[in-house]
Amino acid sequence: MTIQINLSKFQNTESKPFIKWAGGKRALVDSIIASMPRNFNAYFEPFVGGGALFFALKNQGFLESKAIYLSDKNTELINTYQVIQKNPKALLKELESLQKNHNKELFYSIRNLDRNKDFMHLDSIFKAARFIYLNKTCFNGLCRYNAKGEFNTPMGSYKNPKIYDKNLIFNASNALQGAQILCLDFVDMIKLAKSGDFVYFDPPYYPLSKTSSFVSYTDVFLEKEQERLREIFKELDSKNVKVLQSNSNTTFIKEQYKGFKILEIQAKRAINCKGKKRGEITELLN
Questions:
Q1: How confident is the model at residue 75, as a pLDDT?
Q2: Residue 281 has pLDDT above 80, yes or no
Q3: Alpha carbon distance 227, 26 (integer Å)
Q4: Which single residue of 2, 78, 198, 264 could bond 40 by disulfide (Cβ 3.0 to 4.6 Å)?
Q5: Is 86 domain-assigned?
Q6: Is 95 inside any structural domain?
């Protein structure tokens, strides 16, 4: 079933990420685009996160008339993408209500809903609004879960947080029309990729130190998972699928991709609990 949404008044406006995201690529899209192939068939992004590269590619016309596959294992994130794609107006009504009533009591009441057994049965539009609300009002926009899969980031110290932007939501919805948005592990997602397609991997980064990682996904992504990704990367390359990956500038990651071209690029650390540690670092593209 194709859902038609009248977004004509927003079609000439650039789309941008609608949430904050740890490791988001807004500041790096130019470097990534300069390193990606110009000719490809379908586009795959198995760790979509905030979608900075996807939105930039849509704005610049790289994805015109191409099949698009966006996925992530975070069910709340993917539900939000799907709701923005299909029902942005209803989502905005929920966000408007949350904006008007925002305070500390509401924040923790909304945050703690996933402690209830019936959370999975809540309306998908409300759950999407909840996800955006928490993202815009929690500490540093950090999407973090405890071992039980419960959102546990505390409230941020914002005086008047802007929880939603009407044009931003409609422009994002417009950009997402026609895309396949799936809640899948990256291994299952890339089974759809064929020769000539382009896959961009932006996994949870391998930590720079033992204390620098945090739980932002539903499970960890350390040595075992990075090695699994490396094998998938090599397999896709051998099948003439065009692949590009972003990751942290560490000896471990460099060793995983020996034989592939590796570029070091400057990146700004956007999310850190200590302000003095937010600054430029180098990341890898391979």
A1: 96
A2: no
A3: 26
A4: 198
A5: yes
A6: yes
Please give the angle made by the CA atoms of 29, 32 and 36, to the nearest 5 degrees.
Answer: 135
Residue count (the chain): 286
Q: Domain with 209 in it: what CATH number?
A: 3.40.50.150
Query: Quick check: is 3 in a domain?
Result: no
Cβ-Cβ contacts under 8 Å for 212 (sequence gap 6 or more): none
Average confidence (pLDDT) over 225-242: 96
Instruction: Tally the domains of the chain.
Output: 1
Counting residues of the chain whose pLDDT is more than 70, the rounded percentage is 87
CB 248 within 8 A of CB 218: no
Average pLDDT over the chain reads 89
Please calculate the CA angle 215-218-222 and round it to the nearest 5 degrees.
60
Counting beta carbons within 10 angstroms of the beta carbon of residue 140, is it exposed (0 to 12), middle (13 to 18) or buried (19 or more)? middle
Whole-model pTM: value is 0.89
The rounded distance, in Å, linking the Cα atoms of 222 and 185 is 15
Q: Is 47 among the domain residues?
A: yes
Torsion of CA 148, 246, 52, 95, to 10 degrees: 10
Per DSSP, which regions of the chain are E strands? 43-45, 68-72, 180-183, 198-201, 242-248, 263-268, 280-285
